[in-house]
Structure prediction request, 380 residues.
Amino acid sequence: MTFSRTAVLLLVLLAGCSTVSDWFGSSKSGKEPAKLAEFKERATLEVRWRHDVGDAGNNVLQPAVMHDAVYAANAKGEVFRLERTTGKEVWRADSGFTVSGGVGAGDGLVLVGGMKGDLAAFGEDGKLRWKTRMSSEVLSAPQVADGIVVVRTGDGRIAGLSVADGKRQWLYERATPALIVRSHAGVTTGRGVVYAGFAGGKLAVIGLANGIVVWESAVSQPRGNTELERISDITSLPVADGEQVCAVAFQGRVACFDIAQGNPLWSRELSSDKGMSMLGKYLYVTDASGVVSALDKSSGSSLWKNDQLTMRHISTPHVLGNYVAVGDYEGYLHVLDRDDGSMAARLKTDGGGILTAPTELDGGLLVQTRNGGLYSVAIH
Prediction:
């Protein structure tokens, strides 16, 4: 989340709380986005296929990959199934509402959510299975695991729904601070639990089957004299493996915890509204200014930093083989060397921002731009 130097902060009333809306391409310090520097390419990015799925509008939409298909959506409410290897359109369905969250896929369902709380579940054949109405806008992709659809809404609630008919099985809700960042962060699922970060820097682990809290810990504590200074919200997805779970807060800290009991392992100062990925011994994180860093997962110590993309509204990183990939607000896909963070390759798409982390697809990457371009990209 970034602020313009000359613009007045936009405070939007939502569900009884004020939220700070995000703004693309500038920073609260007023610095301009970094100009792209020339470099010696050490990898090649090749577009395997491209398909236009339609404009995302002001929403943050992402594709989903399942079996032999890729699923995507646009703001108008259209949902697409494409052939995984060719990008050829298999079917197109109409949700009947403005899509603001999606796409989620799993257990034979393809899910999208809307600005007015609508949630639609399609089968892999494109036929509508069920619809329901949530308590508030759905700003992130629903998650599906173990027969439960997990949906996060703009009022801070997380609901578990039945895959079969969309009926609510449980609801998790908590009090929120007076001023929060309007966030598109959803939840992470795995090993029978739901990981979710919240306003005020809290991380919660919730039982997937029943919605009961397993444990809760503080990633960051609000600091400062004003409400704006005290914003310390987790606005990105937690990451987890079999041993630990980590999360990062905007204007706060990054911290890792023992996955079983929630005991803190380490923390360090770091502000991020984009989030991070985890692979092997390291965490890869994009901070609030657009610096991409690699951290040691066991201690939080820095391995490398790349500051060549500052203020370019860089996405969450995705690690693929020897590379770390991020998108930016002008639709560039950047690939960094995983060992030292140096620039390895770059690809310009259609100029629309790549707002979510690249998705892995058949040894390469899948990205969706704000303008509606869906790109399957190979790395050589």
Remarks:
- Confidence is low (pLDDT under 50) at residues 1-28.
- Residues 61-183 form a domain with the Lipocalin fold (CATH 2.40.128.630).
- The two ends are 33 Å apart (CA to CA).
